Batch of 2 targets.
Target 1
Amino acid sequence: SYVLTQPPSVSVAPGQTARIPCGGNNFGSETVHWYQQKPGQAPVVVVYDDNDRPSGIPERFSGSHSGNAATLTISRVEAGDEADYYCQVWDSRSDHWVFGGGTKLTVL
Amino acid sequence: EVQLVESGGGLVKPGGSLRLSCGASGFTFSTYSMVWVRQAPGKGLEWVSFLSSSSRYKYYADSVKGRFSISRDNAEDSLYLQMNSLRVEDTAVYYCARVRSITGIGGWFDPWGQGTLVTVSS
């Protein structure tokens, strides 16, 4: 299966832009999905299919994917964005889903 | 409102068994594939198992293959996970989630239930 790598933590000041990277091996042909998980809560999808946003998710959340690198970008970061963020892909070679290790976003 | 509610978690000894349930409401359950995902205490997310809408396709993570079995009852809008030969490392919050996909292949998980805690300990 693919291995997705995320930095353990990212810090950003309120109002600034946070970029959370997701790298790996040969997942360029797969689409990437991103989840936000706040303490004690279930994950919520914030970006799907590389760069689409579910209804109810602010436009401040966006995604990009090129080759074996994907990025979740959060513009104009707010205190309420503080959470763990996970990237995910479906490995079509093995019919398995794979998550990155997660990144804790801290709003300074 | 689309809702998923898990139940059945608890404390079990190593080698024991447990059956988790996930009740669905607010959508046509029989037309969606479903998954189980777990999260060990303080750790990240791990996909566990997938079941297609008609139960034709079942996939398992290597870590649970041969020990866990996924099933569903579309008449009861329910998803199940039978967990046998449980190990200490199976301790986690188990979430059920609905699979969404534009192409019908792969996809993302939305929404998720609130999770149920399984603790495997002697």
Target 2
Amino acid sequence: QAQLVQSGAEVKKPGASVKVSCKASGYTFVGYYVHWVRQAPGQGLEWMGCIKSNSGGTDYRQKFQGRVTMTTDTSVGTVYMELSSLRSDDTAVYFCATTEWLSAAFDIWGQGTMVTVAS
Amino acid sequence: EIVLTQSPGTLSLSPGERATLSCRASQSLSSNYLAWFHQKPGQAPRLLIYTASSRVTGIPDRFSGSGSGTDFTLTISRLEPEDFGVFYCQQYGSSPPTFGGGTKVEIK
């Protein structure tokens, strides 16, 4: 069964960085786009950006430009999302999701990674 | 960016009833690239419908999507207990992809 497996929950202090991983299980997402979407507690869904898993080409939402970095390690079939200069309002569940091409519905999602930013 | 407005915010219905959810876009969506998701607490969203009206394999036929341009609808013909939760629409034809604020379907 195709699924995405994300790294575990993180607790960070304001100003720190967090790096979340996303790995395909049951399929290979080489050539796919991997998107990152976050959801603050009790809130809706917000797209942060995406990376093409083989080329490493990225497209970041303007809001996160300068703070987010998405990378890919094809040797282990894993994509990473790093968010820096964390603030309390970055507290959210972070999801990865894949699409075969850029304009496609997000059909496979990871289980989510809770990131808590607190002093 | 394209803003999606979902209504109503909350729908209180009983199992077996029909649910009609609306999603309105601030501008016409290219190729009707509009998806619907269902999310239960503590879970990732699950894709139900893509390109406005195409049902994902394995999704029951009580779920149907319709609409074009700026106005879209998700209809659940007869609610089952497992259908309760939050439904989101998303447009993915224009960057950045954006989501509506969600419609919560709760048990009456």
